[in-house]
Amino acid sequence: MRTTYLVKKADADELVAVSGQEWYEITKNNDALSDDQKRYFIKDVIVEGAELDILVVEVTGQEYKTWHTEQMAKWRNNTAAKDYSVHSLDAPFQEDLSLQTIEAVDGFPSAEKVTLGQMALHNLILALSAWKPWAVDLLKKYLQGDRRTCTSWLADQCGISLQAARKYKREFEKFVKIFLS
Question: CA 38 to CA 13: how far, in whole Å?
Fold first, then answer.
């Protein structure tokens, strides 16, 4: 990995390469300057095969603002992408469950509502499996209509008392409501 620092000459817009120490001195003194006197730098990473080259270039304040805005947008998108996953509509879902809450039009559910319902259910299953090991099985019981009779099953499954199982069920219901809201 190699880092190259390009700064503007004091008398022209021509860029010259400087050492890391010289660049450090420029940026160290930069904080004490007013906004119109500050020097702005952008960083670009160039990937060539297995090697990375970092290029630090001095730019105008306006160019820096534009670059910084783009970088922040990329960062926000990458951060938000961690909470979502993209699935092809042709890909089969891992669980063969159906949502009973899909609204029907003329007695038949629309393809869009079925697809959205399956995607929501799939994402809920992923979130539940990451949350608690027993949560997906409890969801299956709920979808089968065993909401009232699954307390003893949950107590046996987790090796806990019935009172603790009821608490787990309340936490499960709260988690699902928050996830689907």
Answer: 15
Spatial distance between the Cα atoms of 143 and 146, rounded to a whole number of angstroms: 7
The partner residues of 55 in beta bridges, in order of sequence, read 4, 44
Sketch the domain layout of the chain as residue ranges: 2-81, 105-180
Per-residue pLDDT tens digits for 47-66 = 777 777 888 888 888 888 89
Given a contact cutoff of 8 angstroms between Cβ atoms, the answer to whether 129 and 135 are in contact is yes
The length of the chain is 181
Question: Can you point out the beta strands (E) in the chain?
Answer: 2-8, 15-18, 40-48, 51-59, 104-105, 108-109
Amino acid at 116: L
Q: How far apart are alpha carbons 127 and 87 in whole angstroms?
A: 15
CA-CA distance, 63 to 69, in Å (whole number)? 10
Is pLDDT above 80 for 21?
yes
169 contacts 148 by C-beta, under 8 angstroms: no
CA distance 27 to 63: 17
DSSP 72: H
3-state class of 57 per DSSP? strand
Phi-psi map region of 3: left, alpha, beta (phi>0 left; psi -120 to 50 alpha) = beta
